[in-house]
Specification:
The chain is α/β, with parallel strands linked by helices. It is 27% helix and 23% strand. The strands form 7 sheets. Strands 12, 13, 14, 15, 16, 17 and 28 form a 7-stranded mixed β-sheet that branches. A 5-stranded parallel β-sheet has the order 19-26-20-21-22. A 4-stranded antiparallel β-sheet has the order 2-6-4-5, with no helix packed on it. Strand 23 and strand 24 form a beta hairpin.
């Protein structure tokens, strides 16, 4: 690999470094009561890189060394842990394979704490929970920052699949190194080693051995062991489909209240909100928070309470004929739940332009994250849409691009928060163009120009831009339900009091009670967030719906138990 892409070791930690804290005698005593003390010898490997995280090791005496993933025939030491320090990062909660080798430096004694024991401790011991969770979060951030990982992406800035792969890894907070095929120096030896040709790009080197040519997200997740620790055959109390804010809220509250919860996620935690550059009107974050950071925190919170999350798994059908309910996946497998929360959200409506697919990923984008912003630095761009997501994207991009042309079909005041409207109005490099829609995209292999029409006058304006961000409208992700629940004409799911007696009778509602709030026409199946009819399209509203649905889930489970006992 080129020298510029080698990993950078962690700095030596100080005694007060929250990423590598030193446990107090009292904390060590509590951990010792739950773990198993064992003598270790110099050079002994406690955990190999790529092995599933089954134990956390606390150093009692001696030292433990951390080595990064191998680069050919060698690996680099990236850290040393001494008395009172512990191994592990966020993979300890998820059970996914790690990236580092854990090896004994100086002989001594460690306390081995099993993953299940650690999960029990962080759920019951508030003090230790704060220490471990904070350290795990910061360590993953260090791994990402220093690109200490088992993944190398060899791709091109002109390839939509390269962007897709990088976004998938970034949104799932999996560290990776990236090599630009066109611009990286001294690359031939690396390519020859893995037998990579130009026609193969993009390629993902997984665990320094497997060569994946333009892998699907599911194939990449499989190679990295994202879902390897999850038993798909067990019947869960609650099956949540979708890991956006609503789905994550339902899983956090459900798992924290003792339910056995599994979440299915097609792409990455966070949903549309996860791609927001900065959310400034979410309660409790006066300085704002990125959608990615909010999603990552909620994701870890769900895992802390025992939620299991299947990533890159597409739900293709809900088997609603009998309980427990089953959700069929694209690979033909099934997962089962006594109750189901549907939180699949909505997708941006695609532009009504004939050749749109020709430019998706090579000029037309549906999120404005750091990755996309780097592609269009100092250039002029177009943002299409009048909602908060479009406003956040325009304000974020204005920090790095030359100019943002914001095209809106009507007026901003109808759909956008006032604070964003003021930001847009006061930004010197955002030009707002109302009552306008895109009619033509032009380019050769990459977007080169956009034609837009004024809906009031019919006048056509030409924009010589290479990047357009489309964030307009909402189409519910409900095609996989295939008539199992009552939906409104656009496809959003009707729940609770929005269901008419006629609709319930037509759906075969058999219970003596009416549907609970957020309950669909199918008993024990709920819908929350953007996928629900008449929902408020805000992050806080989605979180509120996901959490509020959980008491109804409990009642549905109690009802089901009563039926079985009868």
């Amino acid at each position: 690999m080129p020298e510029s892409d080698l990993t950078v070791p962690f700095q030596e930690s100080s005694p007060h470094d929250p990423a590598f804290p030193i446990l107090s005698p009292g904390q060590l005593a509590r951990l010792s009561a739950h773990g198993q003390a064992r003598r270790v010898r110099a050079g002994e490997v406690l955990l190999e890189a790529a092995d599933q995280a089954t134990h956390c090791f606390i150093v009692a005496t001696g030292s433990v060394e951390i080595f990064g993933p191998s680069r050919g025939d060698s690996s680099e030491r990236v850290g040393v842990l001494r008395h009172g320090q512990f191994t592990g990062e966020t993979n300890m909660l998820s059970g996914r394979p790690g990236f580092v080798q854990i090896r004994v430096g100086e002989p001594g004694e460690v306390i081995a704490l099993g993953r299940d024991q650690l999960l029990a401790l962080v759920q019951t011991d508030s003090d230790l929970s704060d220490v471990f969770i904070r350290a795990f979060i910061l360590r993953r951030a260090e791994l990402i920052a220093h690109r200490i990982s088992d993944v190398v992406v060899v791709g091109s800035s002109h390839s939509p699949d390269t962007l897709r792969i990088r976004e998938f890894l970034t949104r799932n907070r999996h560290p990776y190194a990236c090599i630009d095929f066109e611009n990286a120096p001294d690359l031939q030896g690396f390519l020859d080693r893995f037998h990579i040709r130009a026609a193969d790009i993009p390629v993902v080197i997984c665990r320094d051995s497997a060569v994946l040519k333009s892998p699907t997200n599911e194939g990449l997740a499989e190679c990295l062991g994202f879902n390897g620790a999850i038993d798909k055959t067990r019947v869960r109390d609650l099956l949540v489909v979708g890991a956006g804010p609503a789905g994550l809220a339902a899983s956090v509250y459900g798992a924290s209240e003792g339910l056995d919860v599994m979440v299915l996620e097609l792409y990455a935690p966070g949903g549309q909100a996860g791609s927001s550059s900065k959310i400034e009107n979410y309660l409790g974050f006066p300085a704002g928070i990125s959608g990615g950071d909010l999603a990552a925190a909620a994701y870890m919170q769900a895992e802390k309470f025992g939620t299991e999350i299947l990533v890159a798994k597409a739900a293709t059908r809900l088997d609603c004929a009998r309980r427990p309910y089953a959700v069929e996946l694209a690979d033909g497998s099934r997962v089962f739940g006594k109750t189901v929360v549907i939180a699949t959200g909505a997708q941006y409506r695609r532009l009504s332009v004939e050749n749109l697919s020709q430019f998706e990923g090579v000029g037309v984008y549906y999120s404005a994250t750091f990755l996309e912003a780097q592609l269009c630095r100092d250039e002029e761009v177009i943002v299409v849409g009048g909602g908060n997501s479009a406003g956040q994207a325009a304000v974020y991009l204005a920090e790095t691009v030359g100019r943002v042309h914001m095209l809106v079909r009507s007026d901003l005041a109808e759909t956008m928060s006032r604070y964003l409207i003021r930001r847009i109005e006061e930004s010197p490099n955002i030009s707002l163009v109302t009552h306008t829609e895109v009619v033509t995209l032009e380019g050769n292999g990459h977007l080169e120009r956009v034609l837009a029409r004024n809906r009031q006058t019919g006048a056509i304006d030409r924009y010589d831009v290479r990047h357009l961000f489309s964030m307009t409208g909402a189409i519910p992700s409900t095609a996989w339900l295939k008539g199992c629940v009552v939906q409104d004409p656009p496809g959003f799911i009707k729940t609770g009091s929005d269901l008419t007696p006629g609709e319930l009778a037509g759906a075969g509602w058999s219970l003596p009670r009416p549907p609970e709030p957020f309950e669909t026409s199918l008993p024990g199946v709920f819908a929350v967030g953007d996928v629900r009819h008449a929902s408020t399209k805000r992050v806080a509203a989605a979180v509120g719906e996901g959490s509020t649905a959980v008491p109804s889930v409990h009642r549905a489970l109690h009802e089901l138990q009563g039926v079985r006992e009868a």
